[in-house]
Amino acid sequence: MKLGVNIDHIAVLREARRINDPDPLQALGICARAGADQITIHLREDRRHIHDDDAEAIIRHSPLPVNLECAQAPDIVDFVCRHRPHRATLVPEKRQEVTTEGGLDLKRDPAALEAVIGRMREAQVEVSLFIDPDPYAVEAARKLGAQWVELHTGRYANLWAMLHSNLPRTRHRIESLDLPRDKLRRMLDEEYARLASLAREAGESGLRVAAGHGLNYQNVAPIVQIPEIEELNIGQSIVARSVFVGLETAVREMKELLG
Ligand code: PXP
Questions:
Q1: Range of the structural domain that residue 202 is part of
Q2: CA 28, CA 64: separation in Å to the nearest integer?
Q3: Is any atom of ligand 1 closer than 6 Å to the C-beta of 213?
Q4: Tell me, what's the pLDDT at 96?
Q5: 4, 35, 79, 245: which could form a disulfide with 40 (CB 3.0–4.6 Å)?
Q6: Residue 215: per-residue pLDDT
Q7: pLDDT at 180
């Protein structure tokens, strides 16, 4: 399975001091050497980590294909069409969120979304839509003209953490504070089944399938077993581990888990 390494968090560390180091550009060669298949970055509307000049330089110099996550804001769509990363993954964005919280709402303004997808594809950029594992999403993504869907694994990851964490409090307790373990286990199994069935449906309808969000060294194995998923985009856990073992080892270890 292919690994897209999301390097936003290298820029997050840089922005903590608003200086020049660490430079996400330096990660490209290291990720390539460690066996990564893709570089993923998120050019957010508020430019809180990756800036335009980072994205430009990364697209220009990356030895690996670049997957640029972005919202549908007109200046960002222009940026994508001008700089032409290998792929654009459309995601919803909220200013206040710490990270992307949910999949795209494909019902809200399909005409606008279709126009954005059309423009990007005309510029020879592959388009992926970041979707929650909802039954209507696959058919909607296909009709809108996307070539890929990326399944949002955030709820799976949250449930996994709630079930396995021994900490008395975890930031993952978003569903409810005191769910019994057997109920949590059932919810995790149901979420996993939803992801697997949506991946199958997407694959059968001709869409290519990626997945990501909240995946880490502990919870990734079951996702790797879903045959239609070709690629995982993983950021936080790899960059977090790289603080202790270095980026090359952190990427290599994750790539080994993906097989
Ligand atoms: N995929 C998408 C669409 C995302 O928005 C993100 C977070 O930027 C990721 C994957 C990576 O998530 P994480 O950092 O939790 O591994």
A1: 2-258
A2: 8
A3: yes
A4: 64
A5: 4
A6: 97
A7: 84
Q: Is the CB of 212 under 6 A from ligand 1?
A: yes
Maximum CA extent, the chain: 51
Question: What is the number of helices (H) and of strands (E) in the chain?
Answer: 11, 8
Residue 93's CATH number: 3.20.20.70
State which ligand 1 atom lies nearest to the alpha carbon of 215. Answer: 16
Per-residue pLDDT reduced to its tens digit, 58-101: 999 999 999 999 999 999 999 999 999 999 999 997 766 666 66
Q: What does residue 14 show for φ and ψ, rounded to 5 degrees?
A: -60, -45
Indicate the number of domains in the chain. Answer: 1
Instruction: Report whether residue 91 contacts ligand 1, using a CB cutoff of 6 Å.
Output: yes
Please report the pLDDT score of residue 181 as a whole number.
85
Cα separation of 90 and 130, whole Å?
6
Structure tokens at 72: 């549908």
Atom of ligand 1 nearest to the CA of 210: 1
Sites in the chain below the pLDDT cut of 70? 95-101, 166-178
Distance CA 252, CA 36 (A): 8
